[in-house]
Amino acid sequence: MGAHRVAVGSRAERQEAQQRVKAAVDSVGREEIYRGTVFLVGVLTGHLIAEPTGGGQSSSEPGVLGGHKRQEGVLRQ
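Above: the chain's sequence. Below: its structure in token form.
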């Protein structure tokens, strides 16, 4: 059995996205793209981990996700 691909967007949209990625890499460099990607993954992961149960709101302020504050080296709520 062959692998099945799910079509997402048109060929023109994919080519346009590839051109935007290439332009970004040419503009700031591959290392900076890697750093930015790792940063964004970390922020999103932190948001998902800190998401409160029961539908409450979490703080979007960096370092205070989920309302937790670090005091004297101990994580406190």
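The CA atoms of residues 37 and 65 lie 20 Å apart.
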